[in-house]
Amino acid sequence: MLDLDSVRDFFARAPFMVDLGVVPTAVSEGRCETEMVLQPRHLQHTGQAHAGVVTSLADHTAGAAAQSVVRGGGVAITAELKTSLLRPAIGNKLVCIGTVVKPGRSLIFAEAEVFALLGEQRVLVAKLSATLAVVQPT
């Protein structure tokens, strides 16, 4: 199982996650939580977070949750994903919770929920489902 320091290293080795400002805040077996402060560069012309930002946050968070259940040195990589954008992601910060629904040796099914925070208000803005393949690093 990964600890929080390992997950922070996992995110730090992904330059795009670093550029977005995604920070892991908690991890446990089959679960990862992240957050990011929204900046003007993350927004659409409408003032909401870009769908690509929301999807990237959810994908990498679900991937970290999946990685937490991988054994034997394998790496979980996204093979397929679906993102449902439920409402505009408007706020100061995005929070994401990724969970493993079905672990496996070669395929893992995971989900993520993304919430927008505006002050004390927390609103569910997106849900992601993903199938991740477990591969051996080359």
UniProtKB/TrEMBL annotation:
Q: Which family does it belong to?
A: Belongs to the thioesterase PaaI family.
Name this polypeptide is given? PaaI family thioesterase
- Name one molecular function that GO assigns to this entry: fatty acyl-CoA hydrolase activity
In terms of Pfam families, this protein maps to: 4HBT (PF03061)
Keywords (alphabetical) are: Hydrolase
Give the SUPFAM superfamilies listed for this entry. Thioesterase/thiol ester dehydrase-isomerase
* All copies of domain Thioesterase, residue ranges: 47-116
